[in-house]
Amino acid sequence: MDCIFCKIIKGEIPSYCVYQDEHCYAFLDIAKDVYGHTLVIPKKHVENLLDDDCDEITVAKVAQTAQKIAKHYVANCGFDGADVVCANGASAEQSVFHLHFHVIPRKENDGEQMWHFKGGKDFDLADICQKLKID
What we know:
Layout: H1 4-10, E1 17-20, E2 24-28, E3 38-42, H2 56-76, E4 81-85, E5 101-106, H3 125-132
Antiparallel strand pairs: 1-2, 2-3, 3-5, 4-5
């Protein structure tokens, strides 16, 4: 397997680890786009949340670790909040196909923009709800 995140976990590629336990590994994103941008990954290789091998325990462990990191950044590192984001699939702009949550620490009026969607669309929400509802 030629997964860059698996290589990071194995120590084959250096990283700036901020936290790890037996299930997860959290490290700074080398893109250096936002101060403290952290990636939280499972040590078990799964592609994303849509992967059949991505079991509930893996999802729970990664989500709990992302929460732990976000809370730490707010309680102990001077941030006011955090974006926690997970892209699933190429169409959702997932670029590394190993499950990962982005924890992006935020400060009030930091000038960063997480959500680039502009304006509302003329969608019929009742129709959409009917089509997407889980029965």
